[in-house]
Amino acid sequence: MHWSATLILSACFLGYLFIGAAVFSALESDNEDGVRGNVRQFKDIWLGNHTCVSDDDLEQLITAVITAYSNGVSPRQNATSPSNWDFSSSFFFSGTVVTTIGYGHISPTTRGGQVFCIFFAFIGIPLCGILLSDLGSRMGKQARRLEDRIGEWKHAAKYPRITRLAYLFLIIGVGTLFFITFPSFIFSAVEGWTYRESWYYSFITLLTVGFGDYVMGINEDINYPTVYKWCGYAWIFIGLAYVALVINMVSDLFTKWGKKLDEKAKKKDEIPEENGNTAETEEKKMKDDAEVELTHVDELENNHNMDSTNL
Q1: Distance in angstroms (rounded) separating the CA atoms of residues 140 and 149
Q2: 214/193 Cα distance (integer angstroms)
Q3: Residue 101 contacts by C-beta under 8 Å, 6 or more apart in sequence?
Q4: Cβ–Cβ contacts within 10 Å for residue 21, how many?
Q5: What Å distances lie between residue 239 and 82, 101, 120, 153, CA to CA?
Q6: Distance between CA atoms of 97 and 90, rounded to whole angstroms?
Q7: Is the distance from CB of 265 to CB of 160 less than 8 angstroms?
Q8: pTM, whole model, 2 decimals?
Q9: How far apart are CA 145 and CA 151, in angstroms?
């Protein structure tokens, strides 16, 4: 990629980050201030109603609750609540590690678990990447067949850009329907989330952002069917392969755009060189003409001298 294209791409990326920072700050900062104020007010009211509890004792309780949540344990759980580290939950955690989603709702806290997680991720992430790449390539073959069929449309050759965009929107639309819309209905019905929250969770998961604010299958008040969790695991894996396919398609578009910028930049660089070469050629031609003219003058003088001698 030409340096000018790299600079433009870098500027666009930084500008995108600045826009994101401004929007998130504008949308979330007021809500954060409101929550912080409500917590302080609740603490003051609670301490006023429970004078036998000191401020330090309350802080210790809050710290214990935060520590429990950071380890994936709800303080409301009882002895009959499901474990965060049974086989099904551990399988789900392993999947979030190798797919780099990393929700963060649970994490290993023992020394052995943390060391094993490092080696497990070191081997599992490349292995998962190879498998997702293979699945994505297989999806890509089917997508190219669809593109060929669209290319058989009688007006496709006349409008190649419109045909390409139609193909891209069709792939994204069908994928969104199967991997976002339908699963979001299921999450909303089973988890009790709003449809907006379900869409948010689906996008955040399949883009491997995985904040951990919404995670399927961990609500202690819901008795989940076993098939629900395993279908959710399959949805994540196949959905990631689809997202990889779409990202590759979008990357190809940006790559083609970058190549066009390179070609334009090269043409601009060649124009001054051609002008410089033209100037050098004209200068050389003028010198050659001057030398020819001087030679002609010398010949005339010699002939004149010879004629004078003969006389």
Answers
A1: 14
A2: 9
A3: 95, 205, 208, 209, 210, 236
A4: 10
A5: 27, 12, 22, 30
A6: 11
A7: no
A8: 0.69
A9: 10
At which residue do the structure tokens 């678990």 appear?
113
Q: With contact defined as beta carbons under 8 Å apart, do 73 and 84 qualify?
A: yes
How many residues appear in the chain? 311
Residue 153 CA to residue 75 CA, distance in Å, equals 62
Q: What tokens does 113 get?
A: 């678990």
Comparing 36-40, 247-251, 273-277, the range with the smallest average pLDDT is 273-277
Render the chain in DSSP notation, one character per residue. Answer: --HHHHHHHHHHHHHHHHHHHHHHHHHHHHHHHHHHHHHHHHHHHHHHH-TTS-HHHHHHHHHHHHHHHHTT--TT--TTSPPTTSHHHHHHHHHHHHTT----SS---SHHHHHHHHHHHHHHHHHHHHHHHHHHHHHHHHHHHHHHHHHTSTTTTT-HHHHHHHHHHHHHHHHHIIIIIHHHHHHHHHH---HHHHHHHHHHHHTT---SSS-TT--TTS---HHHHHHHHHHHHHHHHHHHHHHHHHHHHHHHHHHHHHHHHHHHHHHHHHHHHHHHHHHHHHHHHHHHHHHHHHHHHHHHHHHHHH-
pLDDT digits (tens, 9 = 90+) for 62-118: 888 887 777 767 776 554 566 778 888 888 889 889 988 888 778 888 899 999 999
Which two structure tokens, joined as six digits, stand for 111? 């020394």
Cα within 13 Å of Cα(10), Cβ side: 7
CB 117 within 8 A of CB 229: no
CA distance 56 to 62: 10
DSSP letters for 108-158? --SHHHHHHHHHHHHHHHHHHHHHHHHHHHHHHHHHHHHHHHHHTSTTTTT
Do 146 and 170 meet the contact criterion of CB atoms below 8 Å apart?
yes
